[in-house]
Amino acid sequence: MDRQWWQRLHGFPPLVWIVLVGSFFGRGTYFMVWPFLAILLYEKFQLGAAEIGLILSASAVGAALLGFYVGALSDRYGRRNVLLAGTAINFLAFALLAVAQALPAFILAMTFCSIGRAVWEPPASALIGDLVRDKQSRELALQFRYFLINVGAALGPIIGVWAGLSAQQSTFGLTALSYLLLSLAFLWGFARTETGRLAHRRRDMSANFRGTLAVLRKDHVFLVVIVANVLTLFIYAHMDSSLVQYLTRAQAPNLVQLISSMILVNALTIVLLQFPLLQLMRNIEIKGRIVIGLGVLAAGQVWFALNPVHWFAGWMGATFVVSLAEAVLFPTMSVQIDRLAPDHLRGSYFGASSFYSLGWSAAPLVGGIVIEWWSGPALYWLMCGLCGLVFLLYRLTERLSRPRWHDVEDQAEIGEGVAQPQ
Question: Which long-range contacts (CB under 8 A, 24 or more apart) does 404-413 make?
Fold first, then answer.
């Protein structure tokens, strides 16, 4: 980072730092064991690939819809209560995962995990926009949040393996503890800091869910971007649970070490290269960065499809390529939503980005079915083809226009039976 970036970071309000540090600790403890959940379900309950995929997918589908609604609620009622609810749900969910023994309890806990994440993510990102008004500083905060998430993802597996915790169910208790501490930090931040009190009071009581839907329906560019990014998450997510299932059933040697190493390569690539890539692409527009990322992501899918099961270094190389795509795409997608969102609907727009999890949640089910009926390489060839479809969707946005916000809001008010001011 250059000196100007450090100055911007130093100027962030305390609540923004609570979001950033909380993201780091929450994701670090999460990655100690969550990527190994497919192994736990396979060994503990002897489930097939399609069954594991169905469980992992079903636990997140409803959460995507909930995240959209929660984002709209945070616009209307403020961020504080929604954020506290999200951290409380995450605490209960991971505490239940730490002690669950029966399959129904596992499924319930995983559903709460997905709900908690959907409740937490939109208002957390929107809060950064509320408190950091300078556009470049706000984009740096969103980039830095993603950076810290990946630092946590890098350290989590290392600490887990070193402490003998990986693939151990009890590790979820540490994640529960991190969310409990985060709840206490939010209570302090909103009550004891000036920016926290201002953020707690800042709300738009004129916002309503039906009116927000009316606005979003008129923003055709945003709707196509959401569909494109859902597909992007769907493609990327097959490096997670689908790949674990593929390697498990193909009897790849040293499976836990292989998966831990891939997670480490993924996270370290983000940690070491995210900001150099940001600096390198600083003069490239958002859409251009996304097109570059899609090309790299497609190359990674080809490598996954062609890599021999027993070639350890090959899996590391393919993971590195896909991680480069992630370093470009995912932070840019957050910045993209922030730029598209009007100030008074920032929570709703970040809430709509919760639909990305539809792509993530569908990946284990589709991946499990394709692996069970065809093969792992067939899955990744299919994902390479989908990268081309996403590229076409982004080309389509160039032909679409965006609404004039006041005109659309007036129409939404008429639909609600509210008279326009004279």
Answer: 405/215, 405/342, 408/214, 408/215, 408/218, 408/219, 409/211, 409/215, 411/214, 411/218, 412/210, 412/211, 412/212, 412/214, 412/215, 413/211
Is 32 in a helix, a strand, or coil?
coil
Other CB atoms within a 10 A radius of the CB of residue 11 amount to 11
The residue extents of the domains of the chain are 11-411
Answer whether 254's CB lies under 8 Å from 49's CB. Answer: no
SS3 content of the chain, % helix, strand, coil (to 5): 85, 0, 15
Cβ-Cβ contacts under 8 Å for 418 (sequence gap 6 or more): none
In contact, 269 and 151? CB cutoff 8 Å: no
Question: Per-residue DSSP letters for 253-272?
Answer: SSHHHHHHHHHHHHHHHHHH
Neighbour tally for 4: CB within 10 Å? 11
User: Which of 123-132, 153-162, 364-373 ranks highest by mean pLDDT?
Assistant: 364-373
Determine the Cα–Cα distance for residues 30 and 157; give it in Å rounded to an integer: 9
- Other Cβ atoms closer than 10 A to 3: 7
CB 71 within 8 A of CB 352: yes
How far is Cα 85 from Cα 121, in angstroms, rounded to an integer?
Answer: 12
CATH of domain 11-411: 1.20.1250.20
Q: Which of 142, 125, 150, 144 is nearest to 323 (CA)?
A: 150
| Alpha carbons 102 and 107: distance in angstroms, whole number | 9
Ranges 15-19, 166-170, 181-185, 349-353: which has the least confidence: 166-170
Chain center to CA of 330? 8
User: Environment class of residue 31 by beta-carbon count within 10 Å: exposed (0-12), middle (13-18) or buried (19+)?
Assistant: buried
**What torsion do the CA atoms of 223, 406, 120, 180 make, to the nearest 10 degrees?**
170
pLDDT of residue 312: 94
User: Average pLDDT over the chain, rounded to whole?
Assistant: 79
Q: How far apart are CA 312 and CA 26, in angstroms?
A: 29
Amino acid at 362: A
